[in-house]
Amino acid sequence: MKVLGIVGSLRSGSYNAQLMAAAAETLPAGVELEVYDGLRVIPPFDEERDATSAPEDVAALRRAVAEADGILFATPEYNGSIPGQLKNALDWVSVPFEHNVLRNKPVAVIGTSTGMFGAVWAQADLRKVLGLIGARVLDRDTPVPLAQTAFDADGALDTELLEAVSAAVRDLVELVRTREQAQPAA
Amino acid sequence: MSITTEPTLPSGTWQLDPVHSRAAFSVRHSGIATFRGHFNDVSAKLDDGVLTGSVAVASVEVAVDKLKGHLMAPDFFDAEQFPEITFTAADISLVGERATVRGELTLRGVTKALEAAGTVSGPATYLDGNERIAIALETVINRHDFGVSWNAPLPSGGNAVGDDVTLTVDLELVRPAA
Fold this sequence. Notes:
The complex is a heterodimer of chains A (186) and B (178).
Chain A: E1 2-7, H1 15-24, E2 32-36, H2 47-53, H3 56-67, E3 70-75, H4 84-93, E4 106-112, H5 120-133, E5 136-137, E6 143-144, H6 147-150, H7 159-182
Parallel strand pairs in A: 1-2, 1-3, 3-4, 4-5, 4-6
Chain B: E1 13-16, E2 22-29, E3 33-39, E4 42-47, E5 50-56, E6 60-61, H1 65-72, E7 84-95, E8 98-107, E9 110-125, E10 131-142, E11 161-175
């Protein structure tokens, strides 16, 4: 099983990149996580441009999403919601709407912030957006608050918080397996 | 005093005439209006008093493709995992044309008992010489009972989509000449 990791922050050394790395340590056997690193080069969403010559970077993102069995998002919270760059990338992925590559895709959202609430608003907004796009969204918050103290100097996540991340990953894997079992054999 | 229920339901197998049949739903929208949709791919038959029917979720007909896309998604019908909505009823009681039908509806993988009311009319002989009957039924379900729970809060309070959904079927069923 292949899970694609998408981190909503572009900052080098971002807490959410660390969170994704922590999630990678909790993968069950037989599950691999590939972290997408192209968010920075996705241009502003432009439906006209998509119709004429979709940028190769967008095509690569769509391929990565299509080839993944499930997607794990780690999002920060900017001004109470999803980072613009992440929302912009999802807008590209969401078209053509009726057949977009996120449709029916199992997805889960985790997030961390330096505040008390662990990006919980951004996670809720992201789940709403993913649901509207047509993804199979895990109905669970995984907030990691006070990011500056949640990770130690080596980037290791607090044990209790790591267990919450691990539970989200387990539930995502279960969502993928449930979907696979429901599919008629190709 | 009791009302006599006459077992006048026609026997034999009656097949659906899809051209003259319809399965539809309506739900409160914006707290003030009624939104309606229907399914184009409807199957049904009446076989010795047992009514069965199904619709293909992917055949839902609404005005805008984007809405159809959302209705197909896990937020609503989850057509990938639950491609059909089915109904079966062996308990159909008649008083004249008035019908009460008790059966089971399976929607989004959840099966629940329900009762629908309406009419069973006919038989009548059609242009092709075959007999046909008409079955018209209506019932109200709470969509949350079946896990169809998406909503959006309105600025003035309440939600965009109502909880109760009215289901209606208008079926013409044909018994081919022997």
